[in-house]
Amino acid sequence: MGRGYMIRRGDGCDFDVIRSIINDSARVYKGILPEDCWTEPYMSRDELRHEIEDGVVFWACEESLRVQGVMGIQKVQDVTLIRHAYVRGDSQNRGVGTKLLFHLRALAHSPVLIGTWTGATWAIRFYEKHGYRLVSPEQKDRLLWKYWRIPKRQIETSVVLADPRWCKAGGGD
User: Fold this and answer.
1) How many domains does the chain have?
2) What span, in angstroms and rounded, lies between the C-alpha atoms of 49 and 29?
3) CATH code: domain of residue 18
């Protein structure tokens, strides 16, 4: 990724591009997720609107005036959640996700938790490469119930990764 990138907060004008990147990038989940968890489109307009109304703030990584990736951040109680992290297929493995993750991590003033699908092994490896660690299955269930508003079936088929601050704050106990 060249020097011409910029990370900026998403705004109302970005709604359709955020949704497009999420839906295009989420196609990799088809066949990976349990059939009862897959929807087409992956995220509807109403679902994205609800996420934003619920406090998810999206950030965009732009290069050459084109949004290459998006990632959301959400403050919930005593933690910060990284939500909906997606990079265009033709921009993957070029540092877009890393730049967004580092930017959002710098914005977080509390421990960071990340949830993803159990079958998304590439995403799990990405977060582990950047210092996040999988929590135990018991902790995962407790954290997903406490901090996320997702269906029970999604809780059953997800994992949670935590940053070192969460462990130091006693979250690893």
Assistant:
1) 1
2) 22
3) 3.40.630.30
